[in-house]
Amino acid sequence: MSIDPLAAKWLDIEYLRVGSSTQAEVYRLLKEHRLLETLSLYSPILVGTVPIGIHVPGSDLDIISEVADFEMFAERVQERFGGYPEFTIVRRVVEGVERIKANFMVEAWPVELFGQNKPTERQNGYLHMVIEDRLLRMYGEDFRRRIMQLKRKGLKTEPAFAKLLKLDGDPYQKLLELGDWPDADLRELWVISSDDRAQP
């Protein structure tokens, strides 16, 4: 998947400080609780719905990390965040790839720390956010509103995008594939899917 040249903006959370009221709140929370600073050795990136402004009540703050030494990462996370409410940490292997996930509450926000031995800018959580942001910017406010409606009804983010765009198959994989599409093809995809919805 090619990377949108605008994607570099996600590497510095200053965009949150000057964003919506919720994004500004998240910026404060990240700074006060030193979430990214604690993980600075692991190239952390905040991904998911808050950066691109499609969060709904109950949305997590998702932070991805590049982890080679899982023991050290687990110790660091446990030491720093183990006292936070609802703290859990799990290591497992999925399709031959080891990963680690820690969950806990920071103030009113659920936080999920995810790590695997892969550069964060190549992890699916980041790549999904990049293409989703590109689609939201391209398709405009009506598309954003429809995504939010589906999410409020309980759909996860990637399935919501796939539903609106009439993408068959695994929604997570299909969105990754869209990352290589030129703008003209993406615009046509929305026109076609819109026409399909208009059919009686």
Number of strands: 5
Instruction: Provide the CATH topology of the largest domain.
Output: Beta Polymerase, domain 2
Q: Count the domains.
A: 2
- Sequence of strands across the biggest β-sheet: 1-2-5-4-3
What would CATH call the class of the largest domain? Alpha Beta
Hey, roughly how much beta strand do the residues contain?
A: 15-25%
Radius of gyration: 17 Å
Indicate the percent of residues in helices: 40-55%
Quaternary arrangement of the chains shown? single chain
Protein name: DUF4269 domain-containing protein
Pfam family, one: DUF4269
SSE map:
Blueprint: H1 14-17, H2 21-32, H3 35-38, E1 45-47, E2 61-66, H4 70-81, E3 88-94, E4 97-106, E5 109-116, H5 124-139, H6 141-152, H7 157-164, H8 171-178, H9 183-198
Parallel strand pairs: 2-5
Antiparallel strand pairs: 1-2, 3-4, 4-5
Helix pairs in contact: 5-8, 6-7, 7-8
InterPro entries: DUF4269 (IPR025365)
Protein name: DUF4269 domain-containing protein
Describe this structure in words.
The chain has helices spanning 14-17, 21-32, 35-38, 70-81, 124-139, 141-152, 157-164, 171-178, 183-198; strands at 45-47, 61-66, 88-94, 97-106, 109-116. It has 200 residues and is an alpha+beta fold. The protein has two domains: 5-120, Beta Polymerase, domain 2 (2-Layer Sandwich); 125-198, no CATH class. Helix 5 crosses helix 8, helix 6 (141-152) packs across helix 7 (157-164) and helix 7 crosses helix 8 (171-178). The mean pLDDT is 92.
